[in-house]
Design goal:
single chain, 244 residues, alpha/beta, Spore Coat Polysaccharide Biosynthesis Protein SpsA, Chain A, eight-stranded mixed sheet, 8 helices, 10 strands, globular
């Protein structure tokens, strides 16, 4: 049976949001002993980022804005979106360099874990292992945009195009795949990067830059939901547009 010490846990949190840290810290099982990005000496806050800062750090932005009926694609990136992506990237890098567990759990600080979160997660991982299901990304919660496909394992589906990155798990082997995509040289919102890794992305330019490289699966029903923005706010949306 897979145990809690098989998982390294990271929580994306900004230093100026101790309220959100306290909220999720009270809901995360103590066995997971999370690492918070707010404890690192790095800038992930969209209120503090700038183009000179990004260029000096060696980051490059993907040419994001296109002529599209999709309003999210037809506008510039926001600094908060960039900061969120950099925080996730930092979690993968830290996990690759400093942990040895088989699994890496990534949560954003507005994730709302379901009751019996850890018990259900471990039982699900054990079920996938017994059925020899290989995966590179396991959504614990998300917002489906296209239909899912059935899985041969009860309690899981094969996700279609989905948004939201507030709760997912990676097997250790997937870290290399995530990092080899060189996201730091073509930064896009994390919510678009994750689905690009497992489906042909609906945007041709993203599909070309980030072709599918791993298999995804998702808990159904989900193990976590996301706090409403009216309650927790949005650190990605509450930021300026990047004006090139």
């Amino acid at each position: 049976m897979i145990a809690a010490d098989s998982i390294s846990t990271y929580i994306v949190n900004l230093a100026r949001r101790p309220d959100r840290r306290a909220w999720i810290d009270a809901r995360i099982p103590t066995e997971l002993a999370p690492i918070y990005t707010s404890d690192w000496d790095a800038t992930f806050d969209g209120h503090e980022l700038s183009l000179p800062h990004l260029h000096t750090a060696g980051f490059k932005l993907f040419d994001w804005q296109i002529d599209s009926d999709n309003p999210w694609w037809n506008r510039p990136l926001k600094y908060g979106e960039i900061g969120c992506t950099l925080a996730h990237l930092a979690c993968w890098t830290h996990a690759a360099d400093h942990t040895h567990t088989p699994y890496i759990l990534i949560l954003e600080d507005d994730a709302d874990p379901a009751p019996e979160f850890l018990t259900t997660l471990l039982a699900g991982l054990d079920r996938l292992e017994r059925n020899d299901v290989q995966f590179g990304l396991l959504y614990l919660g998300r917002y489906p945009l296209e239909p899912d496909q059935l899985s041969r394992v009860e309690g899981f589906v094969r996700p279609g195009y989905s948004h939201c990155s507030y709760a997912y798990l990676l097997p250790r082997a997937a870290l290399a795949t995530m990092l080899e995509a060189d996201l730091s040289r073509a930064i896009v919102p994390i919510d678009e990067f994750l689905p690009a890794l497992y489906i042909a992305h609906p945007r041709a330019d993203l599909r070309a830059r980030f072709p599918p490289a791993l298999r995804a699966i998702a808990f159904d029903p989900p193990l976590a939901t996301q706090r409403p923005k009216r309650e927790a706010g949005s650190d990605t949306e509450d930021s300026d547009f990047v004006l090139l």
